[in-house]
Amino acid sequence: MQINVSQLLQEPIGSTREYEIDTDSEIIGDGNTYNIHGSCRLMKTQRSVLVKCALDAEVDLTCNRCLSRFRHPLKIKFEEEYVPTVDLHTGANLPPPEDAGSFTIDELHNIDLSEAIRQYSLMAVPMKALCDEDCAGLCQKCGMNLNQGKCDCPAEETDPRWAKLSKLK
Ligand SMILES: [Zn+2]
Ligand SMILES: [Zn+2]
Question: How far is the CA of 112 from the centre of ligand 1 (A)?
Answer without folding.
Answer: 36
